[in-house]
Amino acid sequence: MTDRELINLAIGAAGKAYAPYSGFNVGAAIECFSGEIFTGCNVENAALGSSICAERTALVKAVSAGRKDFKRIAVYADSEKYCMPCGTCRQMLMEFAPDMEVLCAKSGGAYVSYRMNELLPYPFVLS
Ligand code: THU
């Protein structure tokens, strides 16, 4: 799968976002080393702190399906700036995939690429 194909899946997932409070629709697509893909969108809630980001939706779908080995994740929002994973998502993704590639895409489809350990140097670890 090319970067562009993974980003297109993230764009498709953004179409499923439930974001009536922020109006900011986000999609993510996480790729396992097996080639399987899990998509996710942000799902907001009237109790705003209960909302979940697209990246974590995709991640928890994958982990709950028994997958723990991740190669890449694409994140997309129809915005002028690149959609970068928030701090909570960085910590959650880091748990499973410190070397994972992170593609951050914006309106029009342009994207930038990072490694997880670049986005979260010095992560919290237990003991
Ligand atoms: N959001 C994501 O889903 N992923 C990100 O990388 C950044 C923020 C969501 C959370 C909330 O539903 C909305 O975008 C505005 O913060």
- Give the topology string: H per helix, E per strand: HEEHEHEEH
Q: Write out the strand line-up for the largest beta sheet, numbering strands in chain order.
A: 2-1-3-4-5
Query: CATH H level: which superfamily?
Result: Cytidine Deaminase, domain 2
Tally the beta strands: 5
CATH class: Alpha Beta
CATH T-level fold name: Cytidine Deaminase, domain 2
Radius of gyration: 14 Å
Q: Between the first and last Cα atoms, what is the distance in angstroms?
A: 37 Å
What portion of residues belong to β-strands? 15-25%
CATH architecture: 3-Layer(aba) Sandwich
- Anisotropy-based shape: globular
Give every kind of bound small molecule, once each.
tetrahydrodeoxyuridine
Give helix % range.
25-40%
* Biggest sheet descriptor: 5 strands, mixed
Individual helix count: 4
Number of domains: 1
Class inferred from helices and paired strands: alpha+beta
Mean pLDDT over the residues: 97
* Poorly predicted parts: none
What is this structure's SSE topology?
Layout: H1 3-14, E1 26-32, E2 37-41, H2 54-64, E3 70-77, H3 87-96, E4 101-105, E5 111-115, H4 116-119
Parallel strand pairs: 3-4
Antiparallel strand pairs: 1-2, 1-3, 4-5
Bound molecules: tetrahydrodeoxyuridine (THU).
Residues 19, 22, 24, 26, 42, 44, 51, 53-55, 75, 83, 85-86, 89 line the site of tetrahydrodeoxyuridine (THU).
